[in-house]
Write a structure and sequence with these properties.
The protein is of the alpha/beta class. It has ten helices and 13 strands. A six-stranded mixed sheet has the order 5-6-7-8-12-11. The chain has a five-stranded mixed sheet with strand order 1-13-2-3-4, with no helix packed on it. The protein has a two-stranded antiparallel sheet with strand order 9-10. The longest helix is centred in the first third of the chain and has 43 residues. The radius of gyration is 25 Å and the shape is elongated.
């Protein structure tokens, strides 16, 4: 957050010197820097001390506002800088030629147009960012997505998996939202609910959330797996809450479910609990443990909070992997992520295929940072279909 804030100050100082000379603009830029540091530091301290009060929600919201402001300025100030630089050279040239700056109406009009164009970029970016914050609080998108398998057992044809991920119960998503989500899913009549991690940032909300999940009328119940935030907030408390319920928490294990004459095997991969480096060996080992009790002929579904687990799933012949974690980068365009890689993750948002293996990376039900632009919150219902995919190139990775 501090780097973002310093970045906008630097861009203002170096590329927009005309604005920087204005005392009000300079104070505003430096004020955003101080505001960013104070709000982010306050939020971090409250999270570290585990203060689940209205104060933490206030600091979280202030930090989000600061982040949106800084990001909007970082994106827009280079464009404004180009126009301000042009204005600077025009003014310098006129002075060199001995012409006064206000010698004719056309000159004044041209300068006003350039000033307006330069200001348009940061104003527009901030407005767009504000819209992104508003979108973060819109309803969760629940829709059916067909997944085709030519060798799918007939009894699994039409089987519906309600995929919920990254609810991040806390400042921005509460149990009223979860209740609304369950009601929205009921008309689709899902056969099973799979919750692929990052369930709660405020663990006091978790028991009631599990009760709401239990109330969903799904024929084969619900299962959950761990995400990195579940470990950050307190794995023992998370596991204990699920142990007291009818919703199994699958960590390094799986269960076989009979669906007619077919067998559906649901496994839960563990989470590496760290960011920023490779953890391929960890994922291989946890997938091996999660699949240890599976049969060769079962249709295998593995919840892997990290979508990079899909590479291991391909190697292990897992037909379907359900992931989250990336939130789709929370910025998309025409239903696609604008970043194809994020934090070392290749499968950022949506459906990807390779051979007979497929993964769906959900953009998530919630977020710990409330900003969404072209990337709505979602909880897809994946419908298994027997047959050849009519759009085989969509989402293909190789």
């Amino acid at each position: 957050m501090l780097i973002l804030a310093l970045g906008q100050v630097l861009l203002m100082r170096v590329l927009n010197t005309i604005w920087w000379r204005n005392r009000t603009v300079k104070r505003l830029s430096l004020g955003i820097l101080i505001f960013t540091f104070a709000s982010a530091l306050g939020w971090a301290i409250l999270v570290y001390l585990k203060f689940n009060t209205a104060l933490i929600y206030l600091f979280a919201t202030l930090t989000t506002i600061a982040a949106v402001l800084n990001f909007a300025l970082l994106v827009s100030l280079p464009f404004s800088g180009v126009i301000n630089t042009i204005m600077h050279f025009i003014t310098k040239h006129r002075v060199k030629k001995g012409r006064p700056q206000n010698d004719e109406p056309k000159s004044r009009q041209r300068r006003l147009v350039l000033q307006g164009a330069a200001a348009m970029f940061p104003v527009g970016a901030v407005a767009l960012g504000s819209g992104g914050m508003t979108k973060a609080f819109s309803g969760v998108d629940v829709r059916e997505i067909p997944f085709y398998y030519e060798d799918l057992p007939p009894d699994l044809d039409g089987f519906k998996i309600f995929h919920v991920s990254d609810s991040h119960l806390g400042p921005y998503v509460d149990n009223d939202d979860i209740a609304a989500l369950m009601l929205k899913a009921e008309p689709f009549k899902p056969d099973i609910l799979l919750f692929s991690g990052d369930i709660a940032d405020d663990l006091t909300m978790l028991p009631d959330c599990i009760k709401l999940v239990e109330q969903l009328k799904s024929k084969y119940g619900a299962y959950a797996s761990m995400g990195n935030h579940d470990y950050y907030r307190g794995a023992p408390e998370v596991i204990a809450a699920f142990d007291k319920s009818s919703v199994p928490m699958l960590i390094d294990r799986g269960v076989a479910i009979k669906v007619g004459k077919a067998e559906l095997y649901v496994g839960g991969a563990d989470d590496p609990r760290r960011m920023g480096d490779r953890y391929d060996d960890f994922l291989r080992n946890t997938f091996d443990r999660a699949l240890d009790q599976s049969n060769k002929d079962s249709f295998k579904v593995v919840m892997s909070h990290r979508p990079s687990g899909f590479d291991t799933a391909i190697e292990r012949g897992v037909q379907l992997t359900l992931s989250g974690h990336t939130h789709g980068c929370q910025i998309g365009f025409m239903g696609e992520p604008i970043f194809n890689e994020w934090g070392g993750e290749r499968y950022v948002w949506g459906q990807y295929k390779k051979g007979n293996s497929q993964v769906y990376t959900s953009s998530g039900v919630g977020h710990w940072f409330p900003f969404r632009l072209g990337c709505p919150t979602e909880a897809p219902i994946i419908v298994l279909k027997k047959g050849k995919d009519p759009s085989p190139d969509k989402g293909r990775v190789g």
